[in-house]
């Protein structure tokens, strides 16, 4: 089934890290930005623990923040807001604080539509899972929010990713499992430019572009109406 979103009220995309917007729903963000104000809430600044990166976490966070701002500008996003939680720390110990911070921003922006990861976090990244769950919790408590868009990835793509990064990689979905399919071909060049804004993640850019080359220029969503 296909859903069409006609209202022109704001859309807020909630992500865990700088680059999630570019490697995830960037084509859709560019599409929606032609119709309405689009905001990004980024729960962390990408300040990975030193054992996972050759960069100092503080300098890395500053760099990744600038990269996200550049990417958002390319995509036509109105504003990016950082919630400043610690990269890699999103879990049961702080999920009420995360949900409260997201809810506060949603109440200030008053969007009709909220976009985030599907509830398995797309890749199985636990930060993504926490953001999907806390965003859902917050969105149901903000009256202006009528629709939640959950970004999904096809199972054919996830088969190529399985076992490479995380303990558990979700199986993905069929196209028939998705309520909304957005043709992102008209925004492909913007998507490439947004991805390339994240040069601190150059290895991921190369891997993801190779993976994407064999798939349609489309993005897939589950649509939840409140």
**Count of helical stretches:** 9
Biggest sheet strand order reads 3-2-1-4-5-7-6
Structurally, the number of domains stands at 1
Main sheet specs: 7 strands, mixed
The count of DSSP E runs of length 2 or more, i.e. the number of strands, is 7
Helix and strand pattern: EHHEHEHEHHEHEHHE
Distance between the termini: 17 Å
Strand content: 15-25%
The CATH architecture designation is: 3-Layer(aba) Sandwich
CATH fold title? Rossmann fold
Low-confidence spans: none
Query: Class, according to the CATH hierarchy?
Result: Alpha Beta
State mean pLDDT (0 to 100 scale): 91
The CATH superfamily is known as LmbE-like
Shape annotation? globular
Strand-pairing-aware structural class:
alpha/beta
Using the CA coordinates, give the radius of gyration.
16 Å
Determine the fraction of residues in helical runs and give it as a percent range: 40-55%
State the main characteristics:
226 residues; alpha/beta; Rossmann fold; globular; seven-stranded mixed beta sheet; 19% strand; single chain; 9 helices
